[in-house]
Structure formats: structure tokens, C-alpha cells
Design brief:
Helix content is 62%, strand content 3%. With 133 residues, it is mainly α. The longest helix is centred in the N-terminal third of the chain and has 30 residues. The mean pLDDT is 83.
């Protein structure tokens, strides 16, 4: 059907071997990357997983804070109890306790806005979760 000279046959054979070798090398690289990620890829994957876990943990804590069962008495609450309130972390809990120790008990829940670093936004988030009774 086709008649090739001896040189043409050698050239076609070498050409086909080169193509097959190139495909094999490419497939090997793909397989190696899938089964053995480089250090940079592993580091990125680990970092991404840590960020995802941290995000999920933070989200879970915020949901717990948003679903406080019962109201917290801001005149008698402990440092730990105050931290269960939305947007109240260790620093604000300390500020509340110190304010209470210096000025006495709160007369109205709105008085908590007098505490350093508690403004309208924070009060709006916690007002349904606090009491003075």
C-alpha cells in the first residue's frame, strides 16, 4: 500500500518513538503530582486545611454565643459567663468586671454602654441576652 524507503522507515519509527516517549513522560509527571504533591503543594494544602478548621471553629463559637440560653445577669456574672455573650471576649469581660467593681452594680442594662469599648453595635447584639435582675 505504502512504499517507504529505508531512510523514511527509520525516520517514521524514530518519530513514533519520540511521540510515545513524550506521552509516557507527560503521563508519568501527572501521575507523580497526583500521588506525591510537592512540598509547596503540601504546605498550601495544610495551610488551607488549618484555615478551614479555624473558620469552622470560629463559626461554631459565634453560633454558640448567638444562641445563649437564658439571660446573663451582668451584675453577678463571672468572667467566663460574660464571655458567652455575643461579641464579648476576654478583654471586654475584664472591662465589665472592672467597671462593676469601680462603679457598683448596673441600674439599667443600657448602662453597660458606659463600659470602655462597648458601643451601640455591641449593646444591640447582647441586649436580648442580658439582665440586671
Amino acid at each position: 500500500m505504502f512504499s517507504f524507503t529505508r531512510n523514511e522507515q527509520k525516520f517514521l519509527l524514530l518519530f513514533l518513538l519520540a511521540i510515545i516517549t513524550g506521552i509516557a513522560v507527560n503521563e508519568y509527571k501527572i501521575w507523580q503530582n497526583e500521588n506525591n504533591p510537592s512540598f509547596v503543594q503540601k504546605e498550601w494544602i495544610d495551610s488551607f486545611e488549618q484555615q478551614s478548621l479555624l473558620y469552622e471553629h470560629t463559626k461554631e463559637i459565634n453560633q454558640q454565643k448567638d444562641s445563649v440560653v437564658g439571660k446573663i445577669n451582668i451584675n453577678t456574672a463571672t468572667f467566663e459567663q460574660l464571655q458567652t455573650l455575643p461579641r464579648i471576649g476576654p478583654t471586654l469581660a475584664v472591662n465589665i468586671v472592672e467597671y462593676r467593681n469601680q462603679h457598683g452594680p448596673f441600674q439599667h442594662i443600657e448602662d453597660i454602654k458606659s463600659v470602655n469599648r462597648i458601643g451601640k453595635k455591641t449593646f444591640k447584639k447582647i441586649k436580648t441576652s442580658i439582665t440586671i435582675d
